Amino acid sequence: MRSGLDGITFKTLGRRIVNAQWPEWRPFEAVAPQEVASRSLAILGAAVMGLKCYSTEGIELSFVHDQGSWHALRARNAAEKHLRFDCCDAGVVLKTSRLGTRYFAHKARGTCATAPETPEHLMAKAMICETIIGVGWHVEPEQRLPDTEGLCIADVLAKRTPASLRGIAFEIQWSPQTLEVTAQRTARYTSQGIRTVWLMRQHDIPVSKDMPAVRLVHDGSGFSVVLPSERYVQGRSRFGPRTLRETDCWSSPIALARFIEGVLDSRFTFGLPDRVRVTVMIERTPSSCYRCGRDIVWINGVVLHPGERFSGYSAVHLTLLELGDKDTDLSRRIVVALAERTRHISCAAEIKRMYSRTLRKDYLANACRICGSLQGAGHVYWSNDTEFFEEPLEFECDSNEIGLMADGPIADSWSFKPWRS
Q1: Residue environment code for 314-329, b if the CB has 16+ CB neighbours within 10 A, otherwise e
Q2: Are 145 and 151 in contact (CB under 8 A)?
C-alpha cells in the first residue's frame, strides 16, 4: 500500500513549492493540504509506476517477461495501444529502472492518486512476486482492496489459490513511517482477513505480534532481511537512532527470497514454542596448568543458542562458574554432557565442583587431570585465546528454561526458522 501524498517531502524545494503549473512562490505552511495534494498529483502523475497493467487479454505482469518478450510487448503497445491501467485512462509506457526492474508507467500526467515508487521499492516487489510464484502460490501485485475508509493498495498480496479469501500482504516501506501509521494500515488489512508482513528500510521498527515487521536491506544487487535481536527488543524504547544501527541489535542477514519462502511455509513466528532445541557451543582456551606446567585445555564456558533455529533470539553466554550456579534441569544436563565430552578430549581439563579457599565456596571449575589442582576462575577467564569445540551439544528443553539461564525472561519477538523442524 502506498503512502498518501500528504507524506511526500519536497527536499529539493526546501520550504517552498513551485512548478510550471504553480508559478507563485509560497511558504509550505501557507498552502492548504488539499491544494498540496491536488497540485502534487499533477506533478507526480507522469511518474506513477507499477508491475501490473491490463491488456485486451487480461492482466499483464512486467516481472514475468525476459528482455525479448519485453521488447515485443513494447512494440505491440506502440502499435495497438492495447495496455491500460485500472486507476485511470492514461496511456501505458514500458520502462526499465536503473536497477534493471521492468515496470509500467503512465504515459502522461493525469489525476491518478497513486504515489511514485523508488527503483529499490520496485525491485523488492518484483523479487517477492517471483518468489511467491516459485513456491506455487498465487500472487497479486498492487492489489486494490476497498474498505470503509477508501482504498488500500497492497504492494504484494500472496494467496494459496486465486479463490482464497485470505492472504498475506507484503508491504515494502522504503520511506520512514511512524508506529501509529503502521498500526492503522495493518488494522485495515486485518479487518479484511489479510495478514501483513512489513519490510521496512528504517531501523526503528515495531516489535508486536499484531504488526510483523523486519528490516529490508539493499546491498546494491539484491536484498536481505534482518530481524530485531533480543538487545533491540529489550532496549528499543530507550535506544537512540545511533544505537539502533549497531550490528548486535539485529540478526544475521537472511536472503529476501529465502525469508519470503519461510513466511509462506509458516516459519516466521512470534515467540518461542513451548519446547525448543538448543545448541550449546563449548568455549575453550588451550594453555598450561599453572601448577605442574602440563598442557591443558580450559573450558571457559558455554553459549546457548536458540537463534541457530530462531533468528532474532540472542545467545545466552555463561562462564563455567555461572553455569554451575544455575539450578535448572537444562543446566544440570549440560554439566553432565560437558564432563563426559571433555573426558574423551586429549589435554582437556576435568570439569567438576571443587572448593576454593580464595572464594570460600565450592563451584564448577576446571581441574588439571595430571596434578589435580584447581585452575582458578580468574586464571582461566583472563585469557583472550578462546575458541569453540567443533561439535556443539544439542538439548531439547522448555523454552522458559532459556529465560532462567539468562537470569530473566526472554522478551517475545518475531523469529525465523531456516528450515522446518
Answers
A1: bbbebbbbbbbebebe
A2: yes
In 275-406, where does DSSP find H-type helix?
A: 320-325, 329-343, 377-381, 399-405
The residues, ordered by sequence, that sit 6+ positions from 421 with a Cβ below 8 Å of its Cβ are 277, 309
Chain mean position to CA 228: 7
> pLDDT, tens digit, for every residue of 25-51?
333 333 343 333 333 333 333 346 899
Alpha helices in 345-408 (DSSP H): 377-381, 399-405
Helix axes 119-134, 256-264, angle to 10 degrees: 50
The answer to whether the beta carbons of residues 215 and 203 sit under 8 Å apart is yes
Cα-flanking dihedrals φ and ψ of residue 340, to 5°? Answer: -70, -40
Report helix, strand or coil for 361.
Answer: strand
Burial bucket for residue 98 (CB in 10 Å: 0-12, 13-18, 19+): exposed
Residue 89 DSSP symbol: S
What is the phi-psi region of residue 75: left when phi exceeds 0, alpha when psi lies from -120 to 50, beta otherwise? alpha
CA 284 to chain centre: 32
Closest CA to 353 of 396, 321, 386, 308: 321
What pTM was estimated for this model as a whole?
0.70
CA distance 410 to 403: 5
- Report CA 372 to chain centroid distance, whole Å: 50
Beta strands in 254-293 (DSSP E): 254-255, 268-270, 275-288
Place of cell 508506529: 179
Q: What is the distance between the alpha carbons of residues 174 and 188, in angstroms, rounded to a whole number? A: 20
Chain-centre distance for alpha carbon 255: 10
Among candidates 85, 168, 160, 174, which has minimal Cα distance to 124? 174
116 contacts 77 by C-beta, under 8 angstroms: no
Give whichever of 11-25, 254-268, 373-387 has the largest mean pLDDT. Answer: 254-268
Grid coordinates given for 216: 529490508
DSSP-based three-state secondary structure for 153: strand
Average pLDDT over residues 329-358: 92
Q: What is the CA radius of gyration of the chain?
A: 29
Count, residues in the chain: 421
The β-bridge partners of 53 are: 60
Alpha-carbon gap, residue 417 to 140, rounded angstroms: 26
**Rounded Cα gap, residues 119 and 148, in angstroms:** 31
202-258 confidence digits (pLDDT tens): 999 999 999 999 999 998 889 999 999 878 888 888 898 899 999 889 988 999 999
